[in-house]
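Re: your question from the hallway

Yes, I did run it. Sequences:
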Amino acid sequence: MSALYVVVIVSICVAGLFLAAFIWNVKDSQYEDQKGASMRMLHDDEYQKTVNNQGQK
Amino acid sequence: MPAIDEKEHSVQEPRNARRATCYHCGTPCINNSIFIGNKFFCCEGCRLVYEILNDNGLCDYYKLQSHPGITQIKAVRNDKYSYLDNEDIRKQLYKFTDGDYTIVTFYIPGVHCSSCMWLLEHLYKVNNNIIESRLNFTTKELTIHFSKNKVSLRNIVELLITIGYEPYISLAEANNKQSKSYSRQKIYKLGVAGFCFGNIMMMSFPEYLSHNTGIEQQYAYLFRHLNLILAIPVFFYSASEFFITAWKGIKQKSLNIDAPVALALIITFTRSIYEILTNTGSGYLDSMSGIVFFMLAGRIAQERTYRSISFHRDYKSYFPIAVNVLTSTGIESKSLQDLKENDIVQLHNDEIIPADSVVLGGKAYIDYSFVTGESVPVTVKLNEMVYAGGKQTGEQLVIKIIRPVAGSYLTSLWNHHAFTKNKSEKNDAGSVIHLLSKYFTWVLFSLAICTAIYWTYNDPAKIITSVTSMLIVACPCALLLTSTFTNGNLLRIFSNNGFFLRDATVIEQLAGIDHVVFDKTGTITQSGTNHFTYTGHTLSEDEKEMLFTVVCPSKHPYSKALAAWIGVRIITGTSAWKETPGRGIDAITNGNRILVGSGKFIGMPNVRIKDDKTAVYVRINDKITAFNFLPVFRDAIPGVIRLLNRRYKLSLLSGDNDKQRELLTNLFDHKSELLFEQSPLDKLHYIETLQQNGGKIMMIGDGLNDAGALQQSNVGITLTDDINNFTPSCDAILDAKNFELLPNVLKLAKASRYIIGCSFIVSAIYNIIGLSFAVRGLLSPVIAAILMPLSTLCIIVITTGATSIIAGRLNFTLKSRD
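Structure:
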C-alpha cells in the first residue's frame, strides 16, 4: 500500500508540470491573439519565399 | 512595366461595363478609366498599391480574400508625417532600440482580414531593411523590427500608408502602456487556485467516501497535510485580492462585499489548520479553495477588455502629435506640448487646429462639427479667431497661436471637475451588492452571537465549532458569484451586438436610468449623408452629367451630396473651374457656364436668408434649380425615440442653430426639451442640473463637443459608425448599425437586476440549509463540500441561462460575430 505515497506525489508533480506549462503559455502571450494564429497557419508558403528572397539579394 | 498577373477575372470592356468594382478595394469605380490589363481600380491610389504589390511578388494578397484593400480615394498628404523626423518624438514611439536594431509598435485600425495580416507580415519583401513584422490581429497592433540606420521611421510609416494601412499614432497612448501584467496576474491566480482546488478535491475524496469508518490513519495524515500545503498558495496568493480590497474598504470605514468573504476565508483557513495539526478533523480546505477558484473565475468573466477600443481618450488623442511651425529658418516640426504663443503654424487640408489662433493667411474654411456640433463648415476672415479642434478644409492656412494648447476654449473643458473623478470607482461604491453585503454582514454577526449565547448555556464545548462553521457556510460568495457571472454574460452578449461597455459597473447604472439626452449632429442625424428636395428647373441627363463634372472635384459636403445623388457619370472635363470656399463653384464645361452655390453667388434675386443656409442653387446658363437639404436621421431614430418616449424623459442638446427645430419637435414630442446652440460646457451644466434634481441621466453623443456631458452623465454612450474611429472618453461605445437595440439594452440591464435578485434568493436558501447544520454544530466537511459546488453550479446556470434567454427574447444575437 505504500505505493500510494509514491503515486500521490507523482500525480501532484505531473499536475504541477501542467500548471507550469499554463503559466508559461500565458506569459508567452499565447492567449493574446487567438484569431491571428489561426490565420497565420494558413499562409503556407512563408518559409520557402523567405529563403528565395534572401537568395536573390 | 511590371509583369501583370493575368490569371483571374475575365476580360471586361472598359466602356461597356458601367460600374466595374475596384480590384484592390471592391469599391464601385466612378469611371472605368483606371486599369491595368483587365483589372480596374477606383482611383490612382489603389492602382499604385497594386503595382507595388505586383512588383514585389505579393499578389497572394488578392488570393486570400477578394478585394481586401482599403480604398485610397482619400489620399494622405506627403509631409503629414514629417514630424517623425523629429528625434524626440520618435524616441517616445520606440519600444526598444540599441542604436540600430529598433522595435516599434503601431496600432493599425484598417486591419480586417487575413490578407491584411499576410501583407503586413511580408513587409520585409517591400523593404529589406525591415527585419520582421508581426501583427496581433486581435489588438490590431503591428510590431515592426527594423534597422534604424538604414530605414527611417517616417519611411516605414509612409510605406504603410502607401499600401493602405495608415497607423494611428498618438503619443498619449504610446506613453500610457496599459498594465498587461496586471490582468495576467489574475489569470495566474486562477490557474494556481484551479490546480490546488483540483488536487485538494482528489485527496479529500477518500475521506468523503469512507464516511463513518474513517480511513486508515496513516493515509488520512498524508492527505490532510498535503491538502494543507496545497491550500497555502490558494490562501496567500490566489485569494490575496479579496483581503486587499476588504482592507481598503475597512480603512475607508465601509464594508464592501469582500470584507465578509475575507472573514470567511480567514476563519475557514485557521480552523482547518487547527483541525489538521491537532488531528481532530480534516478541515474545510476543499470548500475554501473551490470558493476562491469560482470567485476568481467570475471576476475574470466580468472583466472583459476590448483591446482595440479605448474608453479613456481625451482631446489629446484627437489632436495631431506635431504641427509645422514657420520659423525664420524655415518649416520646423514641433510637438504639440512645445507649442507656444505667437508661433506661426501652417495647416493643410483636413488638419486640425491645435490651439486657439488668429488667421494670418489663406482661406480659412473650418469644420467645427466634431467640437461644437455645427454641421456646416464656416468661413473665417483674416485676423479673426479660429478655435482649437476645428478642421481646415480646402487650401493651406497660416495661423498664429494666441493661447497655449491646454488653455484653449475646447481643451479647458477638461479642467472641469467632472473629469477628475473616477467614474468606475464611484459606480462600484454605490453598487447594490455592497449594500446587500452590509446587511448580510450585520445579520450574520447577530446570528453568530445568538448561537454563541445559546451554546454557552447548553454545551459550552460546541461554541467555537458552531460559530466558526456558521461563518464558513454563510460566506456571501454566492452573492458575489451571482453578480459577476450575470454581468460577465451581459457584457459578452452586449459586445456581440456591437455595444461595448467600459466595465461591469456600467450595467447597474444603465438599469437605473430615467432620462435620456441626445446630441444632434452625428448622433440623431447621420453626418456625411444628406437628403434633399429640389424645385425649379428639372435637370436633363446631359445637364446632370455636366453638373457631376463640376461638383466632383469639390470637397464641400453639399457638392459631395449632389455628386452622390447624380450617381456615376463620366467626367467630361472643364475649361474653367474655380471654387470660392463658403460661396460656390463657378465653372465652364462644354461651353456652358455652371454656377453652384448660395443664392447670392449664382445671382438669384430675392433669396430669403433663412432658406439660404440649407439650400444650394445650381444655375446652368439661365436655368436655375434649388436643392433644399434636409438632415438625414439615422434609420433607427424614429423607432428608438418612440419606444424610449414611453418610459423615459427625453432631451436634445445641439451645438447647431435651430433651423431644424420644427422637424425635431415632430420627431420627439412637446414634452421633450430641445436646446440649441449649446457649447460643450453648456451641455455639461445641463446634465449637472438634471442630476441635482435627482435625475439619472444617459447621454448619447458622438464628438468631442459631448465629452463633458458624457463624462458628467451617469452613463455616457458614444455612437460611432466605425468602432475604430476616434471616440471621446465615455462609459460605453455603441456601433451605429445597432442603434435600434438601444431600448432593449436598457430593458436587459433592468432585467439583470431581477436575475441577480432571484439567484440571490436561491443562494439564500442554500445558506439557510447550510446554517441549519452549522448552528447545531453538525457541519461536516462532506456537507460543506457538497453544498458549495452545488450552489455555485446552480448560480452559474441560473444567471447565464436567464440572461441568455431574456437577451434572446429581446432580439440580441447570442453567438459571437466572428
